[in-house]
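ugh finaly. both done.
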Amino acid sequence: MVSDRVDEKRKALKRADFTTEATDEVCSLGHPMVIRLGRNGRFLACSLFPEHKESRPLPGDETPPQDGEGDVCPQCGEGKLVGKNGRFGPFVGCSRYPDCNFIKKEGPPPPDQLPFEVICPKNGDGHLVARRARRTGNVFWGCSAYPKCDFTTNFEPVGAFHDADEGPVVRKGETGMCLRCGADVPLPEDVELVGARLAGGPPNPEALVRPARGGGARRGGRTGSGAGGGRSKPGGAGRGTGARSAPARRTVRTESAPDA
């Protein structure tokens, strides 16, 4: 029957028969290149794929040179940065993809790291490193043990310690603050701050609390609070006055049927 012959022919054909086309181009290793059809259109690929995964745009479809092309890949140190086309337009990535998935991202440069080490005041396992927020671009300092520890602070450490609890001191406005207890710690002008042990006021845990995005106060990780400042339990004193308590669940008791 005709339908049987069609089914046999369909099974004999491969997807490559419809999506590849021979060309006179060769790859960097001298292998013939073919035109393939991908999610983002037609492109040149090595005919020995997947043994050799080199690809590039069709002649005439090359994107204008982009900043960083030709540089050594900073992630693997072996590949070169090349211009590519993706779902969201042109970008610069490593030539060794998918063995290396580096993509150069536009934006401000990474922040400078502290010239001294500051132990995380929350768990003591890591140290504070400078990071840049993706949404705002602002610099903050977070624990190097993230995501195991999510401690962050928006105040820059100065390298000094609070003499009462050895908590790291940060600059907050015109004065300093202990990241462990929240005490106010004046910063002297005629003293080398790095490694100094400074006297301060009484503990002030409220200074370590900052408003959450929803309007309530929050403490612990991602807030700049000190050690031991975990998330507040529902209904506890750590919640903001505007927080709404969760509705209580109703429990329905069922009676077992009496014996007949």
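ok and the 2nd:
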Amino acid sequence: MTDMTSKPKRASRRGLRVLDALCVGLAAVAGALAAPTAAQPASPQLAQGVLLVATPDIGDPSWAQTVVLVLHHDSNGTLGVAINRPTRVGLDEVVPDLDTGDYTGSVFRGGPVGPTQLVFLVRNPPLGLLQSAPLIVDGIRASGDLAALPRLVELGRAGDGDVRLFAGHVEWAPGQLAREIADGLWTVTTGSAPRVFSPQPETLWHRLRNAGDELLVERRVPDGRLGDRAPSVGIRAAGDSGSPAPRTARSAAPP
């Protein structure tokens, strides 16, 4: 990962190939992590469509309280977008020549890699539109084909609950993300349309960390019994970065 506050990185050749694939519909190959212990509920595997929730152990402030949707994961690495970093920048400021009519949505800060490249997510696109784009999870397709946006606007399918645009993305080298998860920097939870298209993305991290049926963090009292869930930190801006290394992450099944 790269610090969100550092100088923007150019997308790697592989990253560019994956972004191009979003336009032509190449499917991602899901990878897998080691199975959880018997004492824990079944955990989502590291794969396309899961959410990565930063833990307080992430270390780098630019990554604090970030939630990332994995768009692509295989033996060559991982690519995703941060879904809880909305900006006040409009699409017309990023792509002034694109006629999107009445579209009023803002652009999310997806990551530090390729910040001038836009990727968008569409929830249940209309029949015949973007059908070749990769299906990420729960009816959500990802594309880089901005020419489809005017049609979505025309059909009334470009509201905040239907489309999310992201400037830039996140990349991990082969094995890097698995190590960061093992070091306790991220927890893995299931992605869903209500989560990805949350009407309050700024509070998504807090809600995922504190969901009653998602035990993402445990602490032990002196006698060894499980105590209360560790308290969460208040919401603040998040980002993208390198890689520190503390405890083993705990993943949990979603509601």
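summary for the 2nd one i guess: Residues 13-32+42-210 form a domain with the VC0467-like fold (CATH 3.40.1740.10).
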